[in-house]
From TrEMBL, chain A:
<dbReference type="InterPro" id="IPR027417">
    <property type="entry name" value="P-loop_NTPase"/>
</dbReference>
<protein>
    <submittedName>
        <fullName>LANO_0C09142g1_1</fullName>
    </submittedName>
</protein>
UniProtKB/TrEMBL annotation, chain B:
<comment type="pathway">
    <text>tRNA modification; 5-methoxycarbonylmethyl-2-thiouridine-tRNA biosynthesis.</text>
</comment>
<keyword id="KW-0539">Nucleus</keyword>
<dbReference type="GO" id="GO:0000049">
    <property type="term" value="F:tRNA binding"/>
</dbReference>
<comment type="similarity">
    <text>Belongs to the ELP5 family.</text>
</comment>
<keyword id="KW-0963">Cytoplasm</keyword>
<dbReference type="GO" id="GO:0002098">
    <property type="term" value="P:tRNA wobble uridine modification"/>
</dbReference>
<dbReference type="Pfam" id="PF10483">
    <property type="entry name" value="Elong_Iki1"/>
</dbReference>
<keyword id="KW-0819">tRNA processing</keyword>
<protein>
    <recommendedName>
        <fullName>Elongator complex protein 5</fullName>
    </recommendedName>
</protein>
Length: 277, 299
């Protein structure tokens, strides 16, 4: 692998990871991250936060030590009053993100983590779903100056609040995308198995809601980051593949387009590197 | 009208420009190719004076071409009354010179039985309804309604024109590979590009459905008809097909083929409609015709 050339993460055809065009006045977009068993996406979440803070995913594109040095010398691209990103996770605690982002030398004041793993059920037990969703929206948009919201596995709300996919989309995802310029939805798609419209196979109600939610996320998104393991399993020097492809939403009104690409990635200790396929 | 049925490209342009008498146009899409491209083409082809009411369940951004932008709600009655507040009343519609178009970016959010009511209430000769349906979106069906048609079946039954968009696959193998990947929500590269396949089904007043397949380009705004080569090839006789099957010679010579093509089949004459659909009675010498009988049909 030493001879293989490293590759920088480029999502749009202006060679950017998060293009400035996405944050223009009146623009609202959804990015969709899908992951499978054995290839968890926190490194990509960290890279997106880092992009928002420093302008590029330094740790992903460079070696860890040089990235840390550059992070020290480089000033954040926005003023410090504004949160660069807000992370809401139903899968990881806030300590998890503080630890991971701390290693990337990102100041805790630059981002905010909402921990909905630790005591979400205790706090919202017996409350009506509509009220819980409203309070969540209120919490997440309180820092109205933020431009990037990352939702890690919001599909769990369907089971936690006993609501349908349509309610989750219409009463939670849509209101958030209306307020925040870029919303990143990170979902786990290992159990997704859609036999299609022509199939006579009967799906369980839970599976129907799961598929509807994930499909809905696809149709809303402008770009899909698909993370999956290698077809042949995990190799010694390759963890999996990252496919960047167009989502279902139209980009025709923007001056940019999605730069579709497929990368190999290798996660070792705390660092992830991308390689040419 | 007859000329359009012979030119599929003109028919498609007329459907997109809402010039065909088609109050309900259904756009069927999938993850492989979403239907936004068709909505944009319709907005481009229609007159600028057309009032476009865009009802969105998926996007929070008002498209540039939309006159009014509404966000979809779960309550069908509330949604209907909101949309209707932007449309003319039947009395106003009679005198109005302007066209109205309601675009719904995804009717999958409207629960099965309510869809019919929504379509019936909105689509009319003065208001065209253009609705997108994601065909791979599963829907919950209660056991009592197990044999009731699916939402897609109902919409396809009601639609006067159906525009199905599909990704443009290079060959059958890659199409199958894409399908198996999409079944697991693994989105391959190259889908949702500016080139796609469009299958137009247009229902005539007689009930006859015309189906054409086009290769479209959203950048050049071109619609090239794809000839169904497979069907034609399949209809042609392959001499090797009959080899070794029997001891008889089942192949036809060129002379026999020419003779076969020249045979005028009876149903072709019936389709000419020269007689306007009337029953043609030819009087014969043995027929008894009573002139005094008022109910006697002279022909």
């Amino acid at each position: 692998m030493t001879t293989v050339q490293k590759q920088e993460l480029s999502v749009f055809d202006d060679h950017s990871t998060l293009s400035k065009a996405l944050f223009e006045q009146g623009e609202h977009h959804v990015l969709f991250v899908t992951s499978k068993l054995g290839t968890s996406p926190p490194w990509l979440i960290n890279a997106l936060v880092e992009t928002q803070v420093f302008g590029a995913p330094l740790t992903l594109n460079e070696s860890s030590s040089s990235a840390a040095n550059r992070a020290h010398s480089r000033l954040p691209i926005a003023n410090s009053d504004k949160k660069a990103a807000i992370i809401a996770s139903w899968l990881h605690s806030s300590d998890y993100f503080h630890s991971a982002l701390g290693k990337l030398k990102i100041d805790q004041n630059r981002y905010q983590v909402h921990d909905y793993l630790t005591d979400f059920v205790l706090k919202n037990h017996d409350k009506p779903a509509s009220k819980v969703l409203k309070s969540l929206i209120q919490e997440l948009t309180m820092q109205s100056a933020t431009d990037l919201l990352i939702l890690e596995q919001p599909e769990l709300l369907m089971h936690l609040l006993n609501i349908t996919s349509d309610v989750l989309h219409l009463d939670f995802i849509n209101p958030l995308t209306r307020i925040i310029p870029v919303v990143v939805i990170v979902s786990y798609t290992e159990s997704y198995d859609n036999p299609g419209a022509d199939s006579t196979e009967r799906l369980s109600p839970d599976m129907i809601e799961q598929i509807r939610f994930l499909n809905g996320c696809f149709f809303k998104s402008i770009v899909v980051f698909g993370i999956k393991p290698l077809m042949t399993g995990r190799a010694k020097d390759i963890t999996g593949t990252l496919t960047i492809s167009r989502g279902g939403a139209s980009l025709s009104h923007l001056p940019i387009n999605v730069a579709e690409n497929e990368y190999l990635f290798h996660t070792q200790k705390d660092a992830t590197k991308l390689f040419y396929r | 009208m007859a000329s359009t049925s012979h030119n599929p490209s003109i028919l498609l342009r007329r459907v997109l420009a809402l010039k065909e008498s088609s109050p309900f146009v259904l756009v069927v899409d999938s993850i492989g190719r979403t239907g936004h491209c068709v909505l944009e083409e319709v907005a481009r082809e229609t007159d600028e004076s057309t009032t476009i009411v865009y009802v969105s369940f998926e996007s929070t951004r008002k498209p540039d071409y939309a006159t009014y932008f509404l966000e979809g709600t779960k309550s069908e009655s509330k949604l209907l009354s909101t949309i209707q507040s932007f449309l003319p009343t039947p009395e106003q519609a009679k005198t109005s010179k302007f066209k109205f178009l309601v675009m719904i970016d995804c009717v999958n959010f409207v629960a099965g039985p309510s869809i019919m009511n929504l379509v019936a209430q909105l689509a009319s000769p003065t208001v065209a309804l253009l609705a997108v349906f994601h065909k791979h979106q599963p829907e919950f069906r209660s056991p009592e309604l197990e044999n009731y048609p699916s939402s897609l079946d109902l919409l396809q039954f009601m639609a006067t024109s159906i525009l199905e968009v599909q990704p443009l696959a290079n060959d059958y193998g890659s199409e199958q590979e894409h399908e198996s990947q999409l079944q697991k929500l693994e989105i391959p590269r190259g889908l949702n590009s500016h080139r796609y396949k469009l299958i137009l089904t247009n229902r005539r007043k007689s009930g006859r459905a015309l189906t054409y397949t086009f290769q479209c380009d959203t950048q050049a705004h071109t619609f090239a008809l794809i000839q169904e080569k497979n069907v034609q090839d399949g209809a042609q006789e392959d001499p090797e097909m009959f080899e070794g099957l029997t001891t008889f010679n089942l192949n036809t010579s060129n002379k026999q083929k020419v003779a076969k093509e020249q045979v005028a089949l009876p149903f072709l004459e019936a389709q000419t409609f020269n007689t306007g659909g009337a029953i043609v009675y030819e009087f014969e010498k043995d027929d008894d015709y009573d002139e005094e009988d008022p109910f006697e049909d002279p022909f």
